[in-house]
Design goal:
Length: about 250
């Protein structure tokens, strides 16, 4: 670095190296000395450290809830508004730097949200039959869910001669609380993931293949449903609410 008097502009120039611990002991001492006398640069360093840690945590988690995005936006809003209010020329560069760092993080977080495919998670739960929290007849399952379900549930398919409700479990489908219902259909397993929908879409079921399974998604009475089974499409659609047959 080789400067006798550390300035705010020089501090910002070497901030990344400082935060990453890549400066020499002498250079690091200069930066620390400046931090002790400059509240603005100290706030900037703290914001830079926080944002880099958030990015690191997001990459580890592969996804992030809205609460994290709101935290980052709050930090960026406070820091950027502080620097833009400054009359010092280099404050503009700082604001741009913090904003750029935040944009990278928020872009990654948005990708993380999109990667949370509920159908993938439903298929995974369909395959992991262990860990069911209750087995038995519909009355026993309903009684269990009345105590443990985290939302107002509704048994998706009423049992019939060809469709037997045999179990259920309370879990999460990504970031959503969910109840999984397990049915037996002539010896084949059919699972239904049920979860609250903030904005249910009154549309016909969406049907597609995932791995070797048939998957159907639909909304009904404010609840989202993802059906997974290894059986013909016509057979699965036959179990859906009667109103869909008229659409």
């Amino acid at each position: 670095m080789g400067v006798k008097m550390m300035t705010c502009e020089n501090f910002y120039r070497f901030l990344d190296l400082f935060v990453d611990g890549e400066l020499s002991p002498e250079e690091n001492a200069e930066m620390v000395g400046h931090l002790q006398t400059c509240d603005r640069c100290r706030a900037l360093a703290e914001a830079e450290i926080l944002l880099k840690q958030k990015i690191k945590d997001a990459f580890i988690a592969k996804k992030a809830p809205n609460s994290l995005r709101l935290q980052v936006q709050e930090v960026v809003s406070k820091e950027v508004s502080h620097f833009w209010r400054s009359k010092v020329f280099w404050g503009g560069a700082v604001a741009v730097g913090v904003s750029a760092c935040a944009l990278v993080l928020l872009f990654f977080l948005n990708i993380g949200d999109k990667s949370e495919d509920l159908s993938d998670l439903a298929v995974k739960n369909h395959e992991e039959v262990t860990g069911q929290e209750v087995f038995g007849d519909p009355q026993k399952i309903t009684k269990f869910l009345e105590t443990h379900a985290p939302f107002k549930f509704k048994i998706p398919f009423e049992p019939s001669a060809s469709l037997n409700l045999v179990g259920a479990k309370v879990t999460n489908l990504g970031s959503k609380p969910a109840v999984f219902y397990f049915y037996d259909v002539h010896g084949k397993r059919l699972s239904v993931a049920q979860y609250p929908q903030k904005k249910p879409k009154p549309a016909a079921p969406r049907v597609f293949r995932k791995k070797q399974y048939l998957v159907a998604t639909y909304d009904d009475n404010g609840l989202g449903h993802t059906v997974v089974g290894d059986m013909p499409e016509s057979e699965v659609l036959n179990f859906l609410p009667a109103r869909f047959e008229q659409e």
